[in-house]
């Protein structure tokens, strides 16, 4: 695996691959890799000729009071993991490489970015779109892989790709969960054992939504209220939002008619966690 | 010349050219072509294997009280002109093709966009950057050509290209003027003969700046005040701004040390006109 710190370096390597007609798969990450990331990497390795993983804790997607500085980092460990999987290139640029002095260009998906997580994290998706567009322009991948865990992110990136006529195809892969149901996240490392236990309430509330839906409930308010009631029984939990929305435009639903995204963000003490499921009227795994 | 109305259509044509290793030159315009545009087209024809011109009056770069609807349009005339010059492709999409329902992705160059024209035209450069990025992504040109007439636009586009790691190279060509000095602009068609005469005050004020500079004046405030005094002698003229700024960051200069951009926007009755020159300390044409 070639580890590239510089834009010119990764570009040079990829130029040779492209000239040879090889397809490029790309998995952008902030590192501290877990099985969720690795499922994306494996898919890329299967689907494309060359796989590029990026590791970059992107400052522009963190708010001023968020956890940019505490965000877990362990590049050596990540390099070992990716090397063993057979990844071709790791792109791990510095902040200065991606945002040199005088940097000032930003991309926004103006409506979607203000829903759900966007309400409590203003500027977050602007930072995400900007770094993803920059990375896409550097790597020019045929395929890019994102996790359903960050459902809103995946929807926004797909919208950006469509609106800006990018040729990269986006593939979104299912959430990977621990045995007890907790969605994998690099931020789970912030949790002490008691908080780790309390954090199960996110998935439990989603399972409850699934059960109510399977039993025929179509009123989104009823399902949301049941979820809220369940979460509020957990003393360490504080709800940021619980929402049932249309998949495409993230608009709140009153009645569930189409495939619907049930998404929530909950603070467990100071740690903000997100999770989601898709409720589908058609028979398929949600 | 192939005239393409659809994104897929122009892309298909260009794909064949790219596979054959041909270089692509691109001249984005809003049509109603004049010699300023044509100088860009000729440069592209000289420098690249295939030349694409786009004609699209881009609604997102006009403010709500601006002249989007009145902006002059004459596609048949433009097609004739471009055909005679030997242009390979004209891309002339509809508004719906470029901004379909639900469109919501925008690009901003956050600091540069608020200087000079950005102050009186909020949102203008966001619209410009967005459409140029979209067109670049569709055409994927090796070279793109812009006029120095829109000096701030050229600087902003170059900054966007750098910040977003686009591979298109930008070439900026000199202002083309009528014999009497008026910078060519599609908006000159708005002027009646009396206004056309009054509009000469823009270039006259720039010539005055050049003369003062050549005579050794380096105090930007002194030069600006002389320009303002001259313009105010023209009863039909109302100054929007007169500025002497650094070329790179468009910051106002007090003393002219580096190559400096002298830029101004002046209303002649209701018609807003812009013009500029570069004052250079080194001996070269400004």
Total separate domains of chain A = 2
Any guess at the CATH architecture of the largest domain in chain A?
Answer: 3-Layer(aba) Sandwich
Strand content of chain A: 15-25%
The shape of chain A is globular
How is the largest sheet of chain A built, in terms of strand order? 1-4-3-2-6-7
Number of helices of chain A: 10
CATH superfamily of the largest domain in chain A: HUPs
Class derived from helix and strand content of chain A:
alpha/beta
Q: Segments of chain A where pLDDT lies below 50 for 5+ residues? A: none
Percent helix of chain A: 25-40%
The CATH class of the largest domain in chain A: Alpha Beta
Number of strands of chain A: 10
Assembly classification:
homodimer
CATH topology of the largest domain in chain A: Rossmann fold
Average pLDDT, all residues of chain A: 97
Q: Please summarize the sheet with the most strands of chain A.
A: 6 strands, parallel
Could you explain the architecture of this structure?
Two copies of one chain form a homodimer. The first copy, chain A, is built from ten helices and ten strands. Chain A is about 40% helix and about 20% strand. The mean pLDDT of chain A is about 95. In chain A, helix 7 links the parallel strand 6 and strand 7. Chain A is of the alpha/beta class and about 290 residues long. Chain A has two domains: about 170 residues, Rossmann fold; about 90 residues, Pantoate--beta-alanine Ligase, Chain: A,domain 2, CATH 3.30.1300.10. In chain A, the strands form two sheets. Chain A has a six-stranded parallel sheet with strand order 1-4-3-2-6-7, sandwiched between helices. A three-stranded antiparallel sheet of chain A has the order 8-9-10.
